[in-house]
């Protein structure tokens, strides 16, 4: 959205008034259509780094993200989350997470109220049970990534990690989970264009919001929604003609 974001302040941009107006309109549209907007800053935002210069730029960039939500008219809360990873293990996980906590307290109040942390996708990185250490220290919610948990399990099953993560969210805020699948013929960690599912919510379908991460973006979401709806209809009316895989997408039941 804003290249080299850590190198300047938004009010210093020559078209700042127009930026503010555009962001206000974005917020108005999101509220009008009940859309939940979130941020996922890139891999160079690292609060657990041993390098103070990297940490300082990370803090600046996170605070800028939070300021954008302010300009959209959103009150600071995890409803509009700013989601990051701990990233590197460096000297040790505990030391990296302790640095994360120290830098967390240097963020603006609004940013702290929006920040969440996500489990990683490499075996020796941060699983949900690692991230519970952060939650205990600074009360930060955990975003559970179902796909990542295949590769970085920790000591929990996927179901145990799912429930442990959603319990870290504050009352009144729907937890968010991430779902993706591997791209066939590529590295297992690479996201696919579409998802086939089914997505396992472990009995919490009506308690969480799910972000589907795939290359086809909105097209993937719409296709999965159609498939899930047809599957649901088929389970209600087994054997009924016109319902189930291969049926037209506008099928309804009465």
TrEMBL record:
Keywords: DNA damage, DNA excision, DNA repair, Endonuclease, Hydrolase, Nuclease. It comes from the Eukaryota. GO terms for molecular function: endonuclease activity; hydrolase activity. Coiled coil: none annotated. InterPro entries: UvdE, Xyl_isomerase-like_sf. Transmembrane segments: none annotated. GO terms for biological process: nucleotide-excision repair; response to UV. NCBIfam families: uvde. PANTHER family: UV-DAMAGE ENDONUCLEASE. This is Uncharacterized protein. It comes from Coccomyxa viridis. The lineage of its organism: Eukaryota, Viridiplantae, Chlorophyta, core chlorophytes, Trebouxiophyceae.
């Amino acid at each position: 959205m804003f290249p080299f974001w850590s190198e300047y302040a938004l009010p210093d941009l020559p078209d700042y008034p127009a930026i503010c107006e555009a962001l206000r309109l974005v917020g108005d549209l999101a509220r009008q259509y009940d859309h939940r907007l979130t941020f996922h800053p890139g891999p160079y935002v690292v609060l657990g780094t041993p390098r103070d210069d990297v940490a300082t730029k990370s803090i600046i960039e996170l605070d800028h993200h939070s300021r954008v939500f302010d300009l959209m008219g959103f009150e600071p809360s995890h409803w509009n989350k700013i989601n990051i990873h701990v990233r590197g293990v460096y000297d040790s996980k505990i030391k990296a997470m302790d640095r994360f906590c120290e830098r967390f307290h240097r963020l603006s109040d609004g940013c702290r109220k929006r920040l969440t942390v996500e489990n990683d996708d490499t075996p020796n990185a941060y699983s949900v049970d690692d991230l519970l250490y952060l939650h205990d220290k600074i009360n930060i919610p955990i975003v559970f990534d179902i796909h990542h948990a295949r590769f970085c399990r920790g000591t929990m099953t996927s179901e145990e990690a799912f429930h442990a993560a959603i319990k870290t969210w504050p009352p009144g805020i729907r937890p968010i989970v991430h779902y993706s699948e591997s791209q066939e013929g590529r590295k297992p960690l690479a996201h696919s264009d579409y998802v086939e599912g089914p997505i396992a919510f472990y009995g919490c379908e009506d308690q969480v919001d799910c972000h589907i991460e795939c290359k086809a973006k909105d097209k993937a979401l719409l296709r999965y929604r159609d498939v899930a709806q047809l599957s649901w209809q088929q389970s209600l009316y087994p054997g009924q003609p016109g319902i189930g895989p291969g049926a037209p997408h506008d099928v309804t039941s009465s």
